[in-house]
Design brief:
D-Maltodextrin-Binding Protein, domain 2; transport; alpha/beta; TRAP_DctP; TRAP dicarboxylate transporter subunit DctP; globular; nine-stranded mixed beta sheet; DctP_fam
């Protein structure tokens, strides 16, 4: 009997060990700081994935470019070095150009238009085009906020942009606004911007108000001009290699938790946007209201030109989407 008990205990321990070994860990990488809603949302998704798969899957989150800058993370999806990433639509469009449209200046009118776009047939079609081109799948859209210009002077008219050396992300969508207004766009990795502003390598940068706060750009810039020239998004992308390895039910669970966390982060960013202008003023910054129309008039001819990576009909369909209520 004693021998049988020992054998049973050994078998149970073996089964337990095999079960523990069966748990798989996914890698979720992004370029944003630990204190941002994006990172917190990724952690929420990881917690829910482990809970809903009863520990069969865990997800480790790598923030702040710890697994590479944005270009490298996009490449990592196809190499299998990362499983899930946040990335700007402009970066993802490197493999499917039309997806970039929402990252170009003055293509989205504001949050309500952004929300409606994310629920539209157009966004679904563009996401499918990206998947066909890359093998990877866009499963969620996160509101990143309206981008505004910071500098050591006010930017109230297009003339104020002339000659300004402004940092932009390294994607064509972000270069159009400064190019159209006579500025000097300077692509630079997100992690390098603070030091570049501090040392005068660049004169200005552009980002949403929550990002300006997260990255402390207000410490090295005196003025925020509310140009709102881009209504920005992050797409959450799952590697095609990872998708192929998941059972249908587990892929559905992963998709679900990523969509839920994206909705949570979007609401957080929207809430922060509503109060941050006054917070920056309380910190001693000059925050300027801006008439966007003159800037928009300079950019719009480019948006319908043959140089854009989309057919004019796509731009027209985007403009025709009514704002969400």
């Amino acid at each position: 009997m004693k021998k049988l008990a020992i054998l049973a205990a050994t078998a149970a321990a073996t089964i337990f060990a095999l079960g523990a070994q069966a748990a798989e860990t996914l890698k979720f990488a992004h370029v944003y700081e630990v204190g941002t809603p994006y990172h917190e949302a990724a952690l929420k998704a990881a917690e829910e994935l482990e809970k809903r798969t009863e520990g069969r899957y865990t997800m480790e989150v790598f923030p702040a470019s710890s697994l590479g800058k944005e270009d490298a993370l996009n490449e990592g999806l196809s190499l299998g070095t990362v499983d899930v990433i946040y990335t700007g639509a402009g970066f993802a469009s490197a493999v499917y150009g039309p997806l970039a449209i929402s990252d170009f200046p003055f293509t989205l009118r504001g949050y309500a238009h952004w929300k409606a776009y994310g629920q539209s047939d157009l966004f679904k079609e563009l996401s499918e085009g990206y998947q066909n081109a890359s093998g990877n799948s866009i499963v969620a859209l996160t509101y990143y906020g309206a981008r505004h210009v910071t500098a050591n002077k006010a930017i109230k008219t297009p003339d104020d942009m002339k000659g300004l050396k402004i940092r932009v992300p390294n994607a064509p969508a972000y270069m159009l606004f400064p190019q159209a207004t006579g500025a000097n766009p300077t692509p630079m990795a997100f992690s390098e911007v603070y030091l570049a502003l501090q040392q005068g390598v660049v004169d200005a940068q552009e980002n949403p108000l929550p990002t300006i706060k997260f990255k402390k750009f207000y410490e090295v810039q005196s003025d925020i001009s509310l140009t709102g020239h881009v209504v920005n998004s992050l797409v959450t992308v799952i590697s095609g290699m990872r998708m192929a390895s998941l059972a249908e039910e587990d892929l559905a669970t992963l998709t679900e938790v990523l969509q839920e966390s994206a909705a949570w982060a979007s609401q957080e960013i929207l809430s922060q946007e509503e109060s941050l202008a006054d917070w920056f003023r309380s910190e001693g910054l000059n925050v300027h209201e801006v008439d966007r129309k003159p800037f928009q008039e300079m950019v719009e001819p480019f948006l319908v030109s043959e140089d854009m990576p989309w057919e004019p009909s796509i731009y027209e369909r985007l403009q025709a989407i009514p704002d969400a209520e």
